[in-house]
Amino acid sequence: MKRSTFPDPFKKARENKGLGKMNDQNDPVKMVLGHKDVRRCAHNWKTFQSGGEEVGRIVVPSEVHIRDTRQIPFEVDPPEHKSYRDLVEPWFKRPLERDYQIKLTDIVNGVIDEALEKGKLEVVEEFSLKLQSRALTLLLNIPYEESDLWISWGTHVFRSEDTALDGDKANILYDYIDAEIDKAIANPSEDLYSMLLASEVNGKKLTKEEVKGVLILTFAGGRDTVINAVTNSIAYFADYPQSLQRLREEPEILNTAIEELIRYFSPLTQMGRVVTEDTQVCEHAVKSQSRISMCWASANRDERVFENANEVVLDRKINPHLAFGFGTHNCLGATHARQIMKILLTVLTQKVASMEIIDCKENIEDLDEFERKVGFDSIQVKFNKL
Amino acid sequence: MAKITFITSNNETIIAEGTSGSVMELAVKNKVKGIDGDCGGVCSCATCHVHVNEEFWSAVGKPSELESDMLEFDDNVSEYSRLSCQLKVEEVPDGLILKVAK
């Protein structure tokens, strides 16, 4: 098995019962595995709720014990959801602007030049984390130098070596955001904090707590996910130099290649919901106030939808993947993430002849019934200049 | 060359002409409100949903099974719904009228 191969651990359960089970901190989750069932649940926000009273419960593993601030618009349901989403949506579409893309290209060139200069490096810490942090300064519209601090936090803002969730580590981020909000109140600028602080939703100014909710979502939602998408793509092109060569020769397949890598790697395995009434999912009873999760990673390997689902097909033309979620709460950062991937792949084809994986340690998620490879804890790669 | 009329949800009319690519790409190029084409046209994001004017429906044709599945759980679906990323400019009838769903 190549090191960039990411097996599908859900196949049997998906085909046999359509559901999996995970006991998460004594708050069990029924994992929905099939493409159509996942879409059906994501669509039905009334029965499968995001904005319940217990903040953090829809995240798997649950963040109920480490977070009190509601993430916005992520943990708000319609109709209130729409006002918040409409407020932030134009800001999160800025990656489509030329000026943003020029700055992002500089950042990508920076990390790739550094990698070529070093020759050998550990990609997670020395490449992906740096790229993700520096790119985030663009999304927040704050000075580039701020990324040095975020890089110093390491790859996991919420995790330590031995536990999936670490309250102390999470507090570093929450305290930091509190302090930044206070700074923006004292000295408003053109950044996301100031834009939010100056905004109104339904005729009321956003509270500090609401601004914090948007920022936590922005920091947390786009960290491990982007790092995994970038790292895993590097691993893939190292394993398949002919694919990198193909992108060089056929730049017109860039878009399908990006969507396919995102489908295949599905950097976010699942997202939960709280059930609001006794109902059924794939003919199994689910109780009101219990939890389900929509397993994007499983849906994206559903062979009823994707031919050769376990292969990376760079020119896959129809690719209804759910890696950015589906429906009301689809990923707010998707435009930013896609732009990172687009520029990363473009610059790789311009500057890198080939890459070799020297050594790696896989990051395996423990989902009780399943074990899923989601990325790498570390991966040493040699970059060769074009 | 096909001339396509887009009618947005706030009743703005945009007439665009194109020779190649998808109808979604033509709409994005002409900044048609409500058509984002986030996924670049691989039928994943459903941000290019349009209602085909009834008169043109038989000429445009029904969605494929996968496209139809994506539409099934979208908002504002009608019997004339299509994802415009799956419509090719060179294959649609000249004068086509599309109403943006979002």
Structure, described:
The complex is a heterodimer of chains A (about 375) and B (about 100). The longest helix of chain A is centred in the N-terminal third of the chain and has 21 residues, at about 100-120. Chain A is globular and about 55 Å long. In chain A, about 45% of the residues are buried. Chain A contains 14 helices and twelve strands. Chain A has helices at about 10-15, 35-45, 80-90, 100-120, 125-140, 145-150, 165-185, 190-195, 210-220, 225-240, 240-250, 255-265, 295-300, 335-350, and strands spanning about 20, 30, 50, 120, 200, 205, 270-275, 280, 285, 290-295, 350-365, 370-385. In chain A, the strands form four sheets. Chain A has a five-stranded mixed sheet with strand order 1-2-10-7-3. The two termini of chain A are about 25 Å apart. In chain A, strand 5 and strand 6 form a beta hairpin. Chain A has one domain: Cytochrome P450 (Cytochrome p450), CATH 1.10.630.10. The model of chain A has no long low-confidence stretch (mean pLDDT about 95). Chain A has about 375 residues and is α+β, with helices and mostly antiparallel strands. With about 100 residues, chain B is of the alpha+beta class. Chain B has one domain (about 1-100): Ubiquitin-like (UB roll) (Roll), CATH 3.10.20. Helix content of chain B is about 20%, strand content about 25%. Chain B has three helices and five strands, in the order E-E-H-E-H-H-E-E. In chain B, strand 1 and strand 2 form a beta hairpin. The radius of gyration of chain B is 12 Å and the shape is globular. Chains A and B meet through helix 2, helix 12 and helix 14 of A and helix 3 of B.
SSE order and pairing:
The complex is a heterodimer of chains A (386) and B (102).
Chain A: H1 11-16, E1 19-22, E2 29-32, H2 35-43, E3 48-49, H3 80-92, H4 98-118, E4 120-122, H5 123-140, H6 147-152, H7 167-186, H8 192-197, E5 200-201, E6 204-205, H9 208-221, H10 224-239, H11 241-249, H12 254-265, E7 271-275, E8 279-281, E9 284-286, E10 291-294, H13 296-299, H14 334-351, E11 352-367, E12 370-385
Parallel strand pairs in A: 2-10
Antiparallel strand pairs in A: 1-2, 3-7, 4-12, 5-6, 7-10, 8-9, 11-12
Helix pairs in contact in A: 4-5, 4-14, 5-10, 7-9, 11-14, 12-14
Chain B: E1 2-7, E2 13-18, H1 23-29, E3 49-52, H2 57-60, H3 65-72, E4 81-83, E5 97-100
Parallel strand pairs in B: 1-5
Antiparallel strand pairs in B: 1-2, 3-4, 3-5
